[in-house]
Amino acid sequence: MNYKRLLLCLLTGYTFASTPASAYQELQPPHEYDKVSKELVEMLEGIHYNRPHIDDAISAKAFDYYIDALDPSKSFFLKSDIDKLSQYRNSFDDALRDGDTTVAYTIYNLYLERLEKRLLNLQDHLPEMIKGFNYEIDETLNADPDAQKWATTEAELDDYWRKRLKNRALTMKLNGESEEKIISTLERRYKNQIKRVDQTNAVDVYQIFANSITAALDPHTNYFAPRASEAFNINMSLSLEGIGAVLQMEDDYTKVVRLVPGGPAATQSDLAPNDRIIAVGQEGKPMVDVVGMRLDDVVDMIRGERDTTVILEVTPSKGDTQTSKRISIVRKKVKLEDQSAKKEIVEVERDGEKYKVGVITLPTFYSDFAAIQAGDKNYKSSTRDTKELIEELRKEGISALILDLRNNGGGSLQEANALAGLFIPSGPTVQIRDQSGRVTPLGDSDPAIVYSGPMAVLVNRMSASASEIVAGALQDYGRALILGDQTFGKGTVQVLQDMDKGQLKVTQAKFYRVSGESTQHKGVMPDIAFPSLIDKETIGESALDNPLPWDKIHETRYPVYWNMPAYLPILEPRHEARMAKDPNFVAINEQIGEFKKQVETYKTISLKESTRIQQREDNKKSELERENTRRKALGLELLTSVEDIKPIEEDTYAKEASEILLDFIATNQMAEKQAEKKTAQN
């Protein structure tokens, strides 16, 4: 449980006549966890992939992670506090090894003192602060966490808080909220935060401390205290019985981590990764502000009976990040068939002749284990379904095949290996290296090839884990062109280990391609890149703190079918020329440029109402102009409002991938004819 970016502020120059009596109680280390601390050191040093020695270097990293977990927005501690607490920088390893975590509670109790003092003061003075804001003063708020420094004085920190509160109030005002509603909403929000503080116990603090140590090793190793086991399963429960989204807490906000393929949120396409949920409502009932609310409470509000509607108010990850929007989602259970492989045909015209390119979209690597255990010979699996779809597409006369793994976050490793085997004979598809250095190759044992023709694999930044194994294998074998964006880069394997109290999810192995290159951190690089609206700076393994590095081991033996790099000098210029003239790609590139510009623009937020209104209108105007330029080029009716803009229905990426495959076929045929001619001459 992290108390991040609590949006509380004091009016600059405001003086409180008295400080409310302290409401907090200092927390003490739970001695029943002394054994857990020692056990944690033994397990991390013994079974983590890196076989680390928990020493002062790791302690220094852990200290920074712990402080950041408590006060990431630098809203409570002063620089003098951090300077004082730095005496403990090299004590975290000793605390864990000795089973005495007093240092963690010393730091936490000081943080709690600072936090509660501000919260309690704010309760009495928030209404008059809101009423006293002048929104025509030309001042700004620094919104770049990397540029934020610890305040050196109370006055400096007070001013920072004042600006944060003013920004929140102005945002609500621009979203149409009355002053009374702004006051009541923020009062309720900060009361929730006090409640959240009161609910924190010694075990919660221990978990934050333990995870500061694990975070210093890698972002996927985590300790879960016994009470956290339910929270650990929240993602799966929500994914399968709610809106189909994986959520986590970040800076007092409920953030969307990813969407479950085939789920209601992914199907509707309005919600996106990194969006922040600020309010939740049920159909016909008022919205409830959820900033500062516990994750499990937010999840309970989002979940509900099937076929009912939940309304989410979110601040989008793209755009000015200051204007919220409401999204209605009908709750559904994500069924296996919703995630099943699907097919379609893209028709491309060349020289007056139409060619068919088959597209198989695979949202995840799945297998119906229950049906398999029950002896059902017709069980569903991604490999079996894909094989059937390929056979159907071949009967329809396709010239090439696209395997679409965009947004496929992984799944069954066994299925990934088997699916890759549909396109190559028996052989390795991935290598797994454990913490002892032992390398184990895994692959497909079936020599049969279901499809041997030209093919491409479409990937994006959300293609992860098993998707990267398949894409990497087909790229190494020269069986497919990899098209799209750099993949996620999740190339590590975690296992769950029981402890005396709680569980440890620990990284124990790494994936490597048959070429010896790791998929970790770097992911799979496309042969031909497509423009992407997904920001690699905020999404992907490389965007996480302290990821394990990319590296390389010895390659294994495997055949290469086509020398794909040799074709790229011909394929890439044609691809670039088509994109330059395609109205959809032109619009996408312009949108990417606008997003990059906004990221820089909104690192500093204006607190002047007229400026914010002008920025919003400029953004709407730019978006409408961009869409109408695209529509005009396509001969479509022009729009008069941004509210009328709908997602582009045509899959621009699949169409361009089809064009590239036809270029590949033509280039290959020409090369074969030249080779035949040269042979005949000899």
Key traits:
single chain, 682 residues, alpha+beta, Pdz3 Domain, 2-enoyl-CoA Hydratase, Chain A, domain 1, 4 domains, 6-stranded antiparallel sheet, 6-stranded mixed sheet, 20 helices, 42% helix, globular, disordered N terminus
Give a written overview of the molecule.
The structure is a single chain. The protein is an alpha+beta fold and 682 residues long. The chain has four domains: 32-217, no CATH class; 239-335, PDZ domain (Pdz3 Domain, Roll); 338-562, 2-enoyl-CoA Hydratase, Chain A, domain 1 (Alpha-Beta Complex); 583-665, no CATH class. 42% of the residues lie in helices and 16% in strands. It contains 20 helices and 19 strands. The protein has helices spanning 34-47, 56-70, 79-85, 92-98, 102-132, 154-174, 179-199, 202-215, 228-232, 234-241, 264-268, 295-302, 369-373, 382-395, 413-420, 466-476, 564-581, 583-601, 609-634, 652-681, and strands spanning 140-142, 222-224, 245-250, 253-259, 276-282, 288-289, 309-315, 325-330, 342-350, 353-361, 400-404, 427-434, 439-444, 455-459, 481-484, 492-498, 503-512, 528-529, 604-606. Strands 3, 4, 5, 6, 7 and 8 form a six-stranded antiparallel β-sheet that branches. Strands 9-10-11-14-15-18 form a six-stranded mixed β-sheet, sandwiched between helices. Strands 2, 12, 13, 16 and 17 form a five-stranded antiparallel β-sheet that branches. A hairpin with a 4-residue loop joins strand 12 (427-434) and strand 13 (439-444). Helix 1 (34-47) crosses helix 4 and helix 18 (583-601) runs antiparallel to helix 19. The chain is globular. The N and C termini lie far apart (75 Å).
